[in-house]
Amino acid sequence: GVPVTVLERGQPVEERGRDIGALFARRKLNEDSNLCYGEGGAGTWSDGKLTTRIGRNGDDVRSVLRALVAFGAPEGILVSGKPHLGTDRLVRVLP
Fold first, then answer.
1. Interatomic CA distance for residues 85 and 89, integer angstroms
2. pLDDT digits (tens, 9 = 90+) for 66-75
3. DSSP string covering the chain, please?
């Protein structure tokens, strides 16, 4: 493999959630911690669908879904045609 350096801009997801709340409620923008910047990047505060283009029922996908359930995600994601968690649940499931 090739060595990779990941540079994270913004706050951890819990603090980022407060910053996003301040943006919506008080129109207070934190330029380094908002919908686009912070732990997890823009996808963290997306609509929460668990979609992939590598095969909906492929072994790799099913393995990830089973792991999410093992860590507290609802079992319904294992049978849903369009599994959905939402960031509010995902931040509690992922350590």
1. 6
2. 988 998 888 9
3. ---------S--HHHHHHHHHHHHHH----TTSSSSSSTT-GGGGS--B---SS-TT-HHHHHHHHHHHHTT--GGGGT-SS-B--HHHHHHH--
Main-chain dihedrals φ then ψ at residue 84, nearest 5 degrees: -140, 130
C-alpha 55/C-alpha 7 separation (Å) is 30
pTM over 0.70: no
Residues composing the chain: 95
